[in-house]
Design a protein that fits this description.
It contains five helices and five strands, in the order E-E-H-E-E-E-H-H-H-H. With 199 residues, it is an alpha+beta fold. It is elongated and about 70 Å long.
């Protein structure tokens, strides 16, 4: 029985999905040979087969059951999980490396600009968060978005506190009051609906 196949490409990155493992193995062999023919090569670690499917279900073509794998693509980790309605779907979250890089950049920026005016800092941080939400705000990635927002706020407090000349610095209680009354950060939100996207 013929299996289904799909391909998603962005620049020089490509993901191909197959119904049958034998088809995936065949295409993988052909790709390496085709690239060698033109003096090119595929990255040996990034070019790999990743098993996907419900945990515990029979493996492809009668093989033993496999645990579903994960892979990173375009800054997201793709994995197999349940939707809110209980269906098994491909889910996505911000890749760990991208998340660490984002939070590190936020920390460096807050440190470098800690002596700027608080209102100016706030406006720029809001824009940075909006840009992050615009790319990573997809269905199912809410937890990572909330983590970036919460960590950004904590980092901002850390560096504001270090520059304060007041006795005791910028206490967390005082900072929380400012967040409620003056510096109201936008909440994380899903910008792109994966399931509502047109094929």
């Amino acid at each position: 029985m013929a299996g289904r196949v799909f391909a998603v490409r962005y620049a020089d990155d490509l993901v191909i999905g197959f119904t049958h493992q034998s088809d995936a193995e065949k295409v993988r062999r052909v790709l390496f040979k085709r690239f060698e023919k033109y003096g090119l090569s595929l990255h040996p670690e990034k070019t790999r087969l990743v098993p996907f499917g419900r945990p515990g279900q029979s493996g492809p073509e009668g093989k033993l059951p496999q645990e579903p794998g994960t892979f990173d693509f375009l800054g997201f980790t793709h994995y197999w999980g349940r939707s809110q309605k209980g269906y098994w779907v491909i889910k996505r979250r911000t890749a760990a490396k991208r998340l660490r890089r984002t939070l590190k950049a936020m920390n460096v920026w807050c440190c470098k600009h800690r002596h700027d005016g608080p209102f100016e800092q706030f406006k720029i941080l809001v824009r940075k968060l909006a840009g992050h939400y615009a790319y990573y705000g997809i269905t199912g990635n809410g937890w990572c978005l909330k983590q970036v927002r919460a960590t950004t706020i904590r980092l901002w407090h850390k560096w504001l506190n270090r520059r304060s000349n007041a006795p005791g610095g910028m206490t967390w209680e005082r900072f929380q009051q400012l967040l409620r009354e003056t510096f109201v950060f936008p909440y994380s939100r899903v910008v792109h609906s994966i399931y509502g996207a047109k094929p």
